Amino acid sequence: RAEQGQETRLAMENTKHAPGPWMESSFEVWSPLNGKRFGKVVANLRRAEAPDDEARANARLIAAAPDLLEVAAMVLETIDGGGPVVTFQEAHIAQLRAAIAKATQP
């Protein structure tokens, strides 16, 4: 399991996507750039073939992707490292709830 944990850490370090946290603004998702909150467009859903409410919900989900990925990696690292489940619950549950809320709440 420790070897799998190392693989997860390396994968996270070598990722190619724009750095998070991403911000949702109406139909767009932005990545910070040089300390600016709205620096680089990650996704633009203005032309999405979906009703406005669905397009905005999709933008929120996309914006939460880096947060969800980070929490998922931390969970795997804890599990792969043989850490006790209690440690996971105490250390990551609030962050996991926040990432889910970011993905699902307007």
Strand content: 15-25%
Our measurement of the CA-to-CA distance between the termini, rounded to an integer number of angstroms, reads 38 Å
Q: From the helix content, strand content and strand pairing, which structural class follows?
A: alpha+beta
> Considering DSSP H and I runs of 4 or more, what fraction of the residues is helical?
55-70%
Characterize the biggest β-sheet.
3 strands, antiparallel
Describe the protein in words.
This protein is an alpha+beta fold. Helices cover 58% and strands 17% of the residues. It contains three helices and three strands, in the order αβββαα. The chain has helices at 2-13, 52-80, 85-104, and strands at residues 23-25, 28-33, 36-44. It has a three-stranded antiparallel beta sheet, covered by helices on one side. The termini are far apart.
